[in-house]
Design a protein that fits this description.
The structure holds 2 protein chains of 2 kinds. In chain A, the strands form 2 sheets. A 7-stranded mixed β-barrel of chain A has the order 1-6-5-9-8-7-11. A 3-stranded antiparallel sheet of chain A has the order 4-3-10. Chain A contains 4 helices and 11 strands, in the order αββββαβαβββαβββ. In chain A, a hairpin with an 8-residue loop joins strand 1 and strand 2. Chain A is 21% helix and 31% strand. Chain A has a single domain, classed as PK beta-barrel domain-like (M1 Pyruvate Kinase, Domain 3, Beta Barrel). Chain A is globular and about 45 Å long. Chain A is α+β, with helices and mostly antiparallel strands. Chain B folds into 3 domains: 93 residues, Beta Barrel (Elongation Factor Tu (Ef-tu), domain 3), CATH 2.40.30; 107 residues, Rossmann fold (3-Layer(aba) Sandwich), CATH 3.40.50; 82 residues, Ubiquitin-like (UB roll). In chain B, the strands form 5 sheets. A 5-stranded parallel sheet of chain B has the order 9-8-7-10-11, sandwiched between helices. The chains are: A alpha+beta, B alpha/beta. At the A-B interface, loops of A face loops of B.
């Protein structure tokens, strides 16, 4: 009974949320700094226009993956790293395309959600990787366990903008 | 074969030929995207087409992350990397590593640099950084003769004229290391980059500076090949002899023991291998003391005992 109630509460919490896009970034090749953009163009079934995951020039492009067309990261993780570990991780440091606010990314695997006019589907949780430590020079690996963002598929395309709402479908 | 996605892709935008067989390469992203940032004193690994990996100090301003500058002096009797570098042409793609820094600036009131020959290059990224922050520095450039001075063109002569001191052996102004050491103040740091003999002298005479003495050298230590010993491979039970004149890595390769290696100069730790018994002579430049109790770098290190047992 208790477990059923808990499941119901958790289900409720993962449905009743809405967030927004705080930052948008891309880079054309592995290792290069991420640049900030006001808008990104999402190509359905492919990826973010101009980003290294789309052009096959990402560090992991030798292991292609349908579910890594776009990547998202919670601003709340940035805040927690500063609060709990005094680590300053800037939105262009985490190397995901979309920085979100108010979105429970860890609950969105297998779920569809809308970013502005675009429809995405969460595919798997991102995992921390030493590559980010190499690039940022920060010891981050352990601190990013279980909160390293979400890899998603683009179901229908279009432009997304900073400030767009993010809502469940 | 290294994939370009596993390195920083740069394009050679300019090559300037200087005296003393030196070429300055300007590297940028092919589409002029900013390159990864670097700190003063950093170097990059350059991945050459035949698999060689060579390290070069970044000698441009660290606050201009649009390009990397490296200076390559062709060595007639070196390990072959500089000769290959000198054959490269403008427009070619050159994969490099992220910048790494084993020779960083310390937090100090004054920085004293001693450069021998091409050893001036790491200081060329430190000086503009210090000038911008109005931190005191002085550079001592050493050469046998005036015509052996290198890369002076890369120093901003207006900003640095009072801080640069030339020591020319033929002119009777050879740097006297002990005199210089005696003038290092208690809140000052000394940095030495140059030939092995210069660094050895600084280490020998400047030990009292403790962590205020910094040095960097590239390439293979010439003391490396003076003794013979055996390497015992614990897991396979094989025994590999390392004769005089050969590196441990070279001997292992001849015995068909595969060890991943990169710089082959003791700075990247790619070949770091666990040892179980024996007395290695560590000649790498970067491993932490606590790691040296368990690991050895076969590319440059030797052995003081008759045998070294590796966990292979």
């Amino acid at each position: 009974m208790v477990n059923e109630n808990l499941s119901a509460i958790m289900e409720e919490n993962t449905i009743n949320w809405s967030g927004l896009v705080k930052d948008l970034h891309l880079t054309p090749r592995s290792f290069l700094p991420m640049k900030s953009f006001k808008a990104l163009t999402l190509i359905p079934g492919v990826g973010v226009e101009g980003d290294r995951h789309t052009t096959g020039e990402a560090f992991h492009s030798d292991r292609p993956e349908e579910g890594r067309q776009i990547t998202l990261f919670e601003e709340e993780t940035i805040e927690a790293l500063l609060r709990d570990h005094k680590i300053v991780l800037k939105p262009n440091d985490h190397r995901r395309n979309v920085t979100t606010k108010g979105v429970p990314l860890n609950h969105l695997v297998g779920k569809k959600f809308r970013v502005g006019d675009v429809l995405l589907e969460g595919m798997r949780l991102s995992t921390p990787c030493r590559h980010i430590e190499q690039i940022t020079g920060l010891e981050l690996f352990n601190q990013l366990m279980n909160r390293s963002g979400l890899n998603a598929k683009i179901l229908n395309g279009g432009k997304i903008f900073i400030g767009d709402s993010i809502v469940p479908v | 074969m290294r994939k370009n996605i596993h390195s920083v892709t740069t394009q050679i935008r300019a090559i300037e030929t200087l005296s003393n067989n030196i070429k300055i390469f300007t590297l940028t992203d092919p589409d002029d995207w900013p390159l990864p940032q670097f700190n003063p004193g950093s170097h990059i690994d350059v991945f050459l087409s035949d698999g060689k990996v060579r390290q070069y100090s970044l000698c441009g301003n660290p606050e201009n992350n649009g390009k990397y500058l490296i200076a390559v002096q062709k060595e007639e009797y070196g390990r072959g990397g500089s000769g290959e570098m000198h054959q490269l042409e403008v427009g070619m793609i050159l994969p490099v590593s992220l910048p790494r820094n084993h020779f960083p600036l310390a937090d100090a009131k004054k920085h004293i640099f001693v450069a021998g020959g091409i050893g001036i290059t790491p200081f060329l990224s430190m000086i503009p950084w210090l000038i911008k922050r109005k931190i005191t520095w002085e550079l001592h450039i050493c050469a046998n003769s005036e015509d052996k001075l290198v890369c002076e063109q890369l120093l901003d002569s207006n900003q640095s004229k009072d801080s640069v001191h030339k020591h020319i052996t033929q002119n009777g102004t050879r740097l006297l290391m002990n005199d210089l050491l005696s003038e290092v103040g208690s809140e000052e740091h000394l940095y030495v980059c140059g030939p092995e003999s210069m660094i050895s002298e600084a280490i020998r005479s400047g030990a009292f500076l403790e962590n205020r003495l910094h040095f960097e050298k590239f390439g293979v230590d010439h003391d490396l090949k003076k003794t013979a010993y055996k390497v015992v491979l614990k897991k396979s039970g094989n025994v590999v002899k390392v004769p005089k004149g050969q590196t441990m890595l070279g001997a292992l390769r001849l015995a068909n023991v595969e060890i991943s290696a990169s710089c082959e100069g003791g700075i990247c730790l790619e070949c770091k291998t666990q040892y179980l018994e024996g007395a290695p002579i560590h000649r790498d430049l970067v491993m932490r003391p606590v790691d040296r109790e368990k690991f050895v770098t076969p590319c440059v290190s030797g052995c003081a005992s008759d045998k070294l047992i590796l966990d292979l």
